Amino acid sequence: MNGLLTSTPANTSRWQRLGSFVRRHPLITFLVVFNTFGQALAFAPVIARSAYGVELDTDLILIVPTLLFLLLPALVITRVARGREGLRALLRSMVQFRIRWWWYLLPLFILPALTLISTLSVPPEGLSATTLVMAYLTAYLPALLFQFVTTNWWEETAWMGFVQAPLQERFGPWKAVLLTSPFFALAHISAVFDGTFIQGLVKFVLLTVLVVPIRALLAWVYNRTGSIAFVGLVHAASNASALGLVPALYQQTGDAGVPFLVLAVAAIAFSRGRLNVRNQSITHSAGV
Length: 288
Hints:
Elements: H1 2-5, H2 9-24, H3 26-42, H4 44-52, H5 58-94, H6 105-118, H7 129-171, H8 173-187, H9 197-225, H10 228-250, H11 257-270
Helix pairs in contact: 2-3, 2-5, 3-5, 5-7, 6-10, 7-8, 7-10, 8-9, 9-10, 9-11
């Protein structure tokens, strides 16, 4: 029994080698963990539907890989590779909600308004200001809270806080956007492979292209506010607008890409292409 509780020299050496690899290659470690265990869970609804004809609640199932294989590895690897101070800095930004009040206009009003404007369908009969307000209160705000608390808060802790911000510190904002975008798109690959392989591949390429302005906009938001929490809220607002507000009014899913693209162009123009890079990142430089 004592032998089971004590580390042998071989086990100690194995853990030391693993820790050394994580410190030297935190990003590779993170990507390997998520793209194996995380993707296996993310594809569970796709496999259940295509192989067995069973419809699973994708939104609820995706909470598990988000927490276990995005958030948890990001925090653990940060502690191992960047030390206590790196982890504290990441946690501080995760819970930083005290920013200028006008920033909250973006997720609370601007993004849902742009999403509705980008919906080209004719408004249903009887659509009034009262109906719009009720949809906002009963569909959009609950969807915003659900998306933020269950998914996008933790998602951006990983993708912005752990991946993109350190890459930005090392390579600059645009290289960080371009390096992060393919991996961020890959994290959503289960959402586009719902038909043939060729159809899924085409959708994935289009998704990767669309992700670039999304990551650019979120970089600008992060660089201006320093808050990962707020970046997650903006991300959640896009999803809640397209998946909560628009269906409540039009009985169809909205387009989350167009509003992001419009805001990204505005942010790029406003910052003269610099995305207002921060002087100090919340984390230390990332290894690959």
